[in-house]
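Open question from group meeting: does this chain pack into something compact, or does most of it stay loose? Before anyone orders reagents, we agreed to write out a predicted structure and look at it together. Recording both the input and the output here so the notebook holds the full record.
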Amino acid sequence: MLESRVTTAPLYEPPADVRESSVIGRYLHWLESRRGLRFEEYADLHRWSVEDLAGFWSSIWEFGGIRAATPYDRVLGRSEMPGAEWFPGATLNYAEHAVRPHGVGPDNLAVIGISQTRDRMELTWSELAEQVGRARAGLQRLGVGHGDRVVAYLPNIPETVVAFLATASLGAIWASCAPEFGTRSVVDRFSQVEPTVLLAVSGYTYGDKVVDRRAEVEQIRAELPGLRAVVHVPYGPHDLDDALPWETLLAEPGPTRFDPVDFSHPLTVLFSSGTTGKPKAIVHSHGGILLEHYKNHALSWDLRVGDRVLWFTTTAWMMWNFLVSGLLLGSAIVTVDGNPLHPDLDWQWRLAEETGTTLMGTSPGFLMACRKSGLTPAEDHDLSRVRQIGAVGSPLPPEGYVWTAEQFGPEVLLNVASGGTDVCSGLVGGGPLLPVLLGEISGPALGVAATAFDEHGNETVGELGELVVTQPMPSMPVGFWGDPDGTRYHEAYFDTYPGIWRHGDWVRFSAAGSCVITGRSDATLNRGGVRLGTAEFYRVVEDLPEVDDSLVVHLEDPQGGPGELMLFVVLRAGTHLDVGLRRTIDSALRTALSPRHVPNLILDIPSVPRNRTGKKLELPVKKILAGTPAEDVAVPGSLADPASLDAFVTLASERAARRPAP
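Structure tokens returned:
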């Protein structure tokens, strides 16, 4: 349970007029006038939001002006997890709210497309609606209807947004992969949902490199036998053979209609990383995504009509869905495709200036790289429209908080959040009503009963524990595709604590509700009986000027000894891992953290293994070093760089050769 906050020197404090100047302030006035509810502090509002789920989520429905073809009978049909039933009886359509949000002008911009493959393109709200209607009609001519699956091998471009919304308007089900994914990774995902239509590009430009994807598209097509059609979205210099042109799909005008579907009807299938096996096909619903994203984007992101959201993402990451949902609030979205670091780190800040961005979304790694490179974006660019900077994907070290505050001042909110593909949203994060404390995520999101459990299933405050959610959320998955009895779904989230969602992160909550996530719980290091979060290591090691990247694992001793803590570093060009640098790293860890954090071994490696959304792969590396073959712990196509595991395979082989025979 959250307590009122008593903090010192926050980096950001809610302004005095926050109840008049923010969407959540307007929501608080609405609650008081319509429901007779008054909340003085965020802690009180949050407590109500998780104790009265029906009251809270019905208020989001009414405040957001959710349009339903048939009304709901009640908010919760059943509340047990898994299997909670939300808004039974209601029929609606997510796409209607994205294409026709309240209060937008038809000639205002809805989508701004930035690309390294072609020139900038834009869609107004009227153009977006027209293209969605045309794409809907084109999909119907291909036989697509309620429940069919449409899959996209497309980058983050306006056509992808149009195709997604057209698919949703029909009650068909969407899934997408970014075109940098290899054939095996795509087929492992798309084959699970047995699609009827594939939309694809023939290639793209990544920085200054032209990438041809025609061969991959042909292989993907060959392994999806149920396809009725392949649609070629023109992008780059090549054509696709035997494919329907995008222009033909959109050739005939069609009414912009939205077929009502049940609240729980599948909207999209998102896929887990698939690092260690076939990706989980996570099914999200129209109603769940609509309500959850409206809540987040209004009350946390503070979006309103006329805002502009820039968040670099690919179509393989849940942040693409989050970005598209900016449309729900009448905000324009900026789709960006290409190399995020080309021609330099400053490119994304230039885009924020050029597009008039009000919410700039990024990753902690990007912010830390900007800090390390000495960038001064607020000084070098006109970023006066930016009200929030979002950071997700990994823990942000305290130095990143300080750098952002120094660059943008106390008026810009740094909204650090954490959630995931599993709920397609954030579980913890910030917002206009919450202060920003050094190195901490501000608190649990509204409607999310997030807390930490110890190994016995007891709530713990001030100590590291498993991040859990004790009450259902509308955006929890409907289930996994191809898991009719729910066995895999239950094993993924509910095996450890029956009836409680275990998210898989290692977290420490303060009494005031703020929290620090220290990494994945399955990668947490157990050093002499003390659990250590990997994020703490990375913050210290990667702040050293000689180190560009790092990865840490702990190998347990089967005989019960202290085990071996191993640190791997990617060094800055021209730097060598000599005795002096090893001592520098040891000293930094001992001073900033503790003697327990000093590694037994430090080795330099060419690159840190990551999946395609940028997450470090500590657990697969640990398994390889423990003797498991690499092919049994990681699917090459799921890795950003499959060769990044080679150094660990070699090390494991060398260690095995030195190990005495039993």
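Observations to bring back to the group:
The two ends are 53 Å apart (CA to CA).
Residues 125-141 form the longest helix (17 residues).
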